[in-house]
Structures are given as C-alpha cells and as structure tokens.
Amino acid sequence: MSKYKFLGKMALLVSTSGLLLTGCGGGSSSNGEGSDHRHTDTEVESAGRLVLYDQDNAALKVLDLSSGRVLDSYPITGEAPRLYASPGQRFAVILQRTEGLVSFLDSGLYVEDHGDHMHEYAEDPSMLNFSLNGSRPTHYTVHADHAAIFNDAQAGLASSVMLLSEAGISAGQMDAELGLTNNMHGVAKLVGDRLFVTYRDPSIIDTTLPAAVERYQYAGGVFSYEQRYEEPCPGLHGSAATDRYVVFGCSDGVLMMDLSQPGYPASKLGNPTSLLPDARIGSVYSHHDVDEFVGVAGSQFYVMDMTNAADPYQELVLPVGVSRVSQGFNATGTAFYILGNDGNLYLYDVQSDWTAAPAVAVTEAVTTDVINPVVAVAFNDNRLYVLNTHGESVAEVNSVTGATIRTLALDFTASNLVWLGLPEQH
Fold it and tell me: Which domain holds residue 309?
C-alpha cells in the first residue's frame, strides 16, 4: 500500500507501487506522452479533487488527487457543513442547516461543449460569490441534470424547494423555487418534468414528518400543481428515483409512483416480514442503470424489486453486531457498498444477484471518541474515497474488489469530504 503525505501544497512521498500521480496544475493538460495520443488541448488527465472539511481550522481544503497538492483553503463560518456534489460533479454544494445557508465551491474541473468536441478544463478552484438562503436546508437530492434542496423551515415558517442545475450554479442563480404551505422534514425529487414533493397536513402536530406526496409539472422555471396522491405514507422519510419509479419510505412500507404509466399512479408495498420490531425503511437508494432500489431500516438492508409485488424484498445481511456507517452505489452501479462500524467494507455484486464479496478492512473500528468515517464516490472511475476514523487519512478503494489502492495522509483533521471532477461520460 503506497502512502502520501500532504503538507500545504507539497506531496512529500511518492508512490512506491508504480502508481503515477500526474498533475493538472492550474489548467495544464496531459503532456501527451504515451501511446493513447490524447488531444492535449481538449482532454485533461485528472483523478479528480477532494473537498475536505478541516474541523480544527473551520476551513474547506481542495486536494488534487493527481498532483497530490492541497490547492487552496477556504474558511467557513458557522456550523460544520454537509458536503454534496452538484449534478455534474463540478461544484461542491455546501449546506449549513442552522445558518440557513447554501454555498458553492468550484472545483475548477469542468467540460464545455464546443460543438465538434467536448473540451475539458482544469483550472484553480474558487469559492463562488453566489449563495442561497433558506430556512433549515436539509435534504439534498440529485436526479439527472437537476438537484433539489428541501428547506425544512420551522414553526411559523413554510418549507420550500430550491431547484439547481450545473448551468444555473455557473450563472449564479437558482433554476426555480417552490413555496409550500407549512413546515416539515420533507424531500423533493424532480424526474423529467415532474416534481414529487412531500405534504404534511396541518392536522399532524405530533411530528414534522409528512404523510403524503404531491406532484407538480415543471416547465420554464415554473411549477404547476397537478395532484395530491391519495395513497398515504405515514412518517415519510427517504426517497429515490429511477426513470421508471419514484419511491418514498413510509413507517408502514414503501410508496412508489410508476412513471411508465399514464397519470403516474401510486401503489404501496408493505414492510418486509423480516423487519425488526419498531423498525421502518427510512432511507432509499437508487442508480440510473439499476432496476432495483435499496431500502435501509436501521442496519437492515433490502433490495426492492418494484415489479414483483408478490415478493419484492431480498435482504442483504450484515454480520451480527455490525451497524452501518455509510452506504450507496458505486459510480457505475455494478456494486452496492456498506461501510460497517467494524471498519469493514461490504460489497455486493449487483449484476450477480447481489452476491456478497468477502469483507475488506478499510479503516479502524468506529468508537465513541473518533470521527465517523465518510465515503465519497468518484464518478470518473470505480473508486471510493474513505475518510478514516481519525480524520487524518483517506483510503482510495477499488469499489468492485474492495482493494485499497493507496492511502492519502493528511496534515489536518478532516470530518467530511466529497469528490468532484470530470465524470467518465460527459
């Protein structure tokens, strides 16, 4: 396992395993050496960049994965942010719920359509002057070219949805905003030209969780109300979508809308029979190239086949005593990963009936006095970047085999990270 030490903007150790780190620098492209004869004026060799939150110095740091340099540091005021990637993985979307603030950091890696070719750029990162304000921005979801931020708000204020795109962020503006009637801990999913958004009846006063879903048409930056679904979804939490289905987690099962049918009808799946007492599916995961969804109930995982109402659930079983820390699909949808609190990575082969691979240790076990490991998915290769339990190193992991490719040592303590860069397919 090769290790790298990053101090300021210098990489002190070079790989000893034959892995070559080639820097992109401030906009430079491949030097053209080798046998692939890349066009250096249109293509950039880059492994991407990690944006990490330095918790001791309250700053975001941009680490270039090809050159091994920390390119820049940006102070952050207020609470520790949650970090997400924009729909095209160019921007870090920085959510600070208590401050009601959404900020944006440009990775400097992006692609432009020049008509006869796609032109790649590697420039210096920068914080954008553009930011958004909303009351308690919480759930962030991405589908295709758009992201939706749901502002939970609080008593006396109404929730809202802010719609973003890569082009909109570049231009310093939202694509659209939808105001709702009251506050809730909700979520929104834009699929094609339809927005599915949660609804909480004012009579529900014992929880801020919604219990129904509404649908809006989206055109020209405007949302037009279409209907509120009659099928209930008590305690709604968690959502995911493919081009065929939109799915929401409910306390009594799973609500789904079939986008292939006229009127996008809704139907319900009951809870799995093996679900533990008082458990419910509260998170849902999807991938655009995978037909099934994955529902998460505590540390129970269920592959959900929405086309098989008679037997929709296949449980992915973790070892006894292991709890989940992080989970999701890899970039290509060929594997689903679960990082356990034992420090092991559990991988499931999606294309082989979700067969489990042997567990692989990628960090130390999680205890009460350490940083929760964080996993970032790289979209230019089947790589996962795992922040270790001390926040002082990041493991680059093959998301198909689980093998650790290299370990990146940090000279600061990170508590969060996100991968940004040039996706494999533009």
Answer: 79-350
